[in-house]
Amino acid sequence: MDLFLQQILTGIANGAIYACLALAVVMIYQAIDHFNFAQGEMAMFSTYICWSLIAAGVPYWAAFFITIIVSFLGGLAIERIIIKPLHHAPVLSHIVVFIGLIAIFNSTAGAIWDHTIKTFPSPFPSGSFGGLIGLHEVGMFFVTLILLLAIFSFFKFTRVGMAMQAAAANPVSAELVGIRVAWMLALGWGLAAAIGAVAGMMIAPIVFLDPNMMLGILLYGFAAAIVGGISSPGGAVAGGFLVGIIENLAGTYIPAIGSELKLTVALVLIVTVLLFKPNGLFGKTIVTRV
Amino acid sequence: MSHLLEVKGLHASYGPTNVLNGLDFSLEKGGVTTILGANGAGKTTTLRAISGMVTRSGEIKLEETDIGAMATADITRQGIAHVPEGRGTFVRMSTEDNLNLGAYSRNDKAGIAEDIERVYSYFPILKQRRTQQAGTLSGGEAQMLAVGRALMLRPRLLLLDEPSFGLAPLIVQELFAILKRINVEEGVSMLLVEQNAALALEMADHAYLLETGNIVISGTSQSILENETVRRSYLGY
Amino acid sequence: MDPRLTVGARIPIKWVTLFVVIGVILPFFMDGYTTFQATLVMIYAIAILGLNLLTGFNGQFSLGHSAFYAIGAYTAAILYFHYGWPVYATIPVGGIVCFVAGFLFGLPALRLEGLYLALATFALGIAIPQILKSSHLEELTGGVQGLDVFRPAVPEMLPLTMDQWWYLIVFVIMLFMFWVAWNLINSRTGRAMMAIRDNSIAAKSMGVSTSLYKSLTFGVSAFYTGVAGSLSAIIIEFVAPDSFTFQLSILLFIGMVVGGTGSIWGALFGGLFILIIPNFAEEISTGLSYAIFGIILILIIYVMPSGFTGLVNLIRTKIRGRIGTTG
């Protein structure tokens, strides 16, 4: 029983990582109706920027917020420069661009900061909560909840948030009610990049910093978003924790999985949920009458 | 009466294909004008050109303002509300959120709340459906929502693209009666594109007949109704 | 797209003959290493063609074709290493195993459109190295260490080096597989595949069984990539999990886009491209080759969405047009 409880807690701790990134996935999906496969690499790159700032002597929280702003502007710029001309291009073109971005960020990070694994500081005290869960994980849990609350309020209560969803769902109609769709998309990219940066900076103290740190985690982020329902930030966070717990329990109690096949758990989760519950466990069912 | 919208030499194209070959027409303030024509004549494109949704050239003047080179969102802000073909509601959002979004370019909270009530008074069924996802509305309700959303802009001009499309005759009658009321009570001018020529001519006071991107006949609805060609080709008697 | 390569097309005998002749004599003018590299180009070309059958002709996306490449490679290595099969016999088996794997993955993938399919295959591509490393499969796969494959000597009566011999084998296999792909695309089946790509609802209403065609195409696509994987295991004489990371999926995808989606012979150019560019890029700056890939990829989408094939066709029509007007 103790083992079980321990695994649940570890699952929640890991889940906080996935939930954080899942929020970025949901954000971009809300804004552009697409996944961004380069999301993880962008977050990785942001985290390196923060690392450089700290290495240059900037205090942690200053570096943290500078990174968020830089990432926001970076996301905005990527949309305006690279994605915008492709608005009417087929899905294939978008996937090609995402693949291109993955290659660019991964390779550039390796070239600038080399491939050795770096430690990354945590803003929270070291130690653990009753020997069960690290304080960084606890801190991260709350950061995730704060982010969730912010995103939820943004979409639910602000005009811009509503407009952004409208622009993603139906750009033509959005334009017709006076929403500047092109800017909404750019804003969505910027916000997603900023959230991704937060996720990266929270995750890096746990998994350490290296150019390939995000690939596996992004998969979990996707799994969390899919499990929770890609259209709902709250669902994505719940999905993140659920995925973290499932992953740990499966690793502990199903011998064939162990600690080695965790990415496969994510693969199975993604495919299963997409097949049987395409709107996720907590997502709104989308009904369309023709 | 003075002109609300004045269009001169309007060309529009989708890629290399020209659809409009230099249209000249004008809309009277407070009036209802209809554009008739066969499929592919360029009716929808005319509306889209006014709203800046297609590549276009030529002069489009809304009273004193030249909107011929403006982006869609800016044209909307000038007071032109476009009810697009196929309604274009935001299907994942509630009815009321759709109406709220219709007022996106406005900042007066009180006025917006007031206008939502006004839309509900024209279309009481929408009030019953206010928390329902727009995607779950029936065809008639969705069309009412599309019109309601357009009204939220407090438009000077309402562009209506086939509002009767796919609706049962009774619903169409009801919808057009309300449109007429809006026109009379609020003085909103309308430009109506319709397949159903008889219906459109009954509603409108002026009409243009479009054939392959050119205006071939224009005049009051009465005179168009009496026109031999129009009667044979579009009214079928 | 070159009309001769699509519906109602005839094989341009003149050009194919020239290509075959050059292809056959080439290894006798190159050193061993270059011959080996050229062999790899052809192997990539087969894999890229497989991906292209799926994406370019059937409109389904895969970011996980490294998985099928890996399955093909491991099938060959395991059959050779554990069961003592002759390496030649492992090649088609690698393809068949992948066909089954692809078909099975394609079945659930059927319900996933566009981006969701890309996501599922993305997950597959990322998960595969970990699966190969798993201790439960270690006895079979050799775990992190991988497996060795040794090629038998060149038949004695042939005056060829090992590199030349395998170059020629791969060349013949490639020609055969391109020919099969060409026939497939120009058959009823091929037209059904493309109809699904262009409008799946319309295709369905015309009586095309979209689900069958889509999963079959997935299987065929995996078959091609699997054969390429088997060949690579034999040529490199080694398989290990880290040769089949997500980066390989990216490489194949890049090769497809650069060669031209929906082009058969463009796959060969794609294979050449993904082998050569890293060599050039490393000379400019170490570690930046993928960044250069990324930039080229994005540029291609802007200026030449039809890839290299599109460029060649454009030049050809321009030249023809000029001859036409002056003559």
Notes on the structure:
Helices cover 74% and strands 1% of the residues of chain A. Chain A is mostly helical and 290 residues long. In chain A, helix 1 packs across helix 6 (159-169), helix 5 (135-157) crosses helix 6 (159-169) and helix 5 packs antiparallel against helix 8 (181-207). Chain A is globular. Chain B has 237 residues and is of the alpha/beta class. Chain B has two domains: 3-79 and 155-235, 3-Layer(aba) Sandwich (Rossmann fold); 93-153, no CATH class. In chain B, 39% of the residues lie in helices and 28% in strands. In chain B, the strands form two sheets. Chain B has a six-stranded mixed beta sheet, with helices on both faces. In chain B, strands 2-1-4-5 form a four-stranded antiparallel beta sheet, with helices on one face. In chain B, a hairpin with a 2-residue loop joins strand 1 (3-14) and strand 2. Chain C has 14 helices and two strands; from the N terminus they run H-H-H-H-H-H-E-H-H-H-H-E-H-H-H-H. Chain C has one domain (8-245). Chain C has a two-stranded antiparallel ribbon with strand order 1-2. Chains A and C meet through helix 4, helix 9 and helix 11 of A and helix 5, helix 11 and helix 13 of C.
- State the order of secondary-structure elements of chain B, H for helix, E for strand: EEEHEEHEHHHHEHEHEEHH
Spatial arrangement of strands, main beta sheet of chain B = 6-7-8-3-9-10
Structural class of chain C: mainly alpha
Q: How many beta-strand runs of chain C? A: 2
Helix content of chain B: 25-40%
CATH class of the largest domain in chain B: Alpha Beta
Numbering strands along the chain, what is their spatial order in the largest sheet of chain C? 1-2
